[in-house]
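Fig. S4 source data, part A: sequence.
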Amino acid sequence: MVSAGILNSIKLKPRNRVIFYIDLSLSLQNNVDILFNSYELAPINLILDSAFPFVCAEYGYAFIRIVQNITEDTKKMRIKRIVSDGAEYQTPTNAKMCVDSGKYDNIGIKERISRFLNRYSKVDVSFSEEDYCIKFSVSISQKGQLQKNALDYLVLFLTENPDLYQDSVKLFEYLRRNVVMNPSGKSLGISKFHPLLRGTEVVLKKVVVNGSICSADIYIRFPFGLDSSALVQKIRNSVSAFNSKEYADIEVYVNAYNPIAVDVNSEVANKLRRAYSDVVGRVDKCVVTDGIYSKLFPNSIGFGPDFSDMAKVNKLAEKDIMQIFNIYLTAMIYLMER
């Protein structure tokens, strides 16, 4: 913002327009125009706050919610609640399920956990007698490794202990077959790979048991080679086939966006790369991200600091802030070059 103000005050006009995306939630709740009209900026159109040196590709993604209404007596449901962590694009590493304390004794629950741990060694499972909750925890994976999902193990525990819920509830079995046991999307018919992007990843984000309704939220990250409309249809077909085979009544709601990529050798990309390297003194590879920014603006390029970890953002030193400022200012000057 300061960089843009300096350029505006000295009447410099860039060749490219630069968009400063300050608050994504504001635009989603209101309107993109409200966000941009809130600030007096030079008429510039390219830069989005996402990653340095710039974003060369964004995965396609889909948000899926599957829902099943419980038609049997809800008193047969032994699960009181299920909670998990994990932000919008992050895999849950902790999940907790609380059960009806009047139906199971401590020894019975602990024996179930012991049998489960004999089969699955990459998860920690503990039981709290105070609130009658079973907690599933997985360690954070090393960079480049697929993150284990605590909710996956919770679903496995449920499907191996079906007396915890009504016979008519098939949602957990659908999750086991099509998400937990198939994180690549193969069972959904959407397993794809691309030289720049990793393969498809299907991530269980949330499971809810609420009275007469069971639901689950799933996030699918997918590369080029599959159109979002085709992906939506494949998911609907998967749920329909499961319903027919298992006499279930699961409903599915899907919202999907196509992946995008930019020309890494374009004039704009080269200027952004040069501005970043001139300020920090090194040349870094462009970034592939899960971001949403460039999807909202055709022909745009993500460019900016990664603020996904707010704990680190709150500890930014003055020199780091000044470096970000210099990168932005240098990039804008380069974009003005004829």
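Fig. S4 source data, part B ends here. Residues 60-257 form a domain with the Alpha-Beta Plaits fold (CATH 3.30.70.360).
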